[in-house]
Amino acid sequence: MKNLLSEVLKHEVYPAMGCTEPVAVAFAAATAGKLLKGKTTGVLIKTDPGTYKNGLAVAIPNTSGRKGNLLAAAVGAVARKPELGAELFKGLPPARLKEAAALLSSGRARTEVDYKKRGIYIAAEVTAGRDKALCVLEGSHNRVSLLRLNGKTIIKTGGPGKKTALPYKQALRKATFKDLFRAVEKIKPAELAYIRRGVDMNLAASREGLKLRKVGYYIQDLIKKGYLKHDILSDAKLTSAAAADARMAGVPVPVMSSGESGNQGVVAVLVPWLVGKAFGVPEKRILKSIAVSHLVNSYIKVFTGELAPICGCAVAAGVGASVAIVWQRAGGDARKTALAVNTVISDIGGMICDGAKSGCALKVASSADSAIRAAWMASNGEGITDAEGFVGDSAEATIKNISRISSLGMEKVDSIILDIMSRKRP
Question: What is this structure's pTM?
Answer without folding.
Answer: 0.90
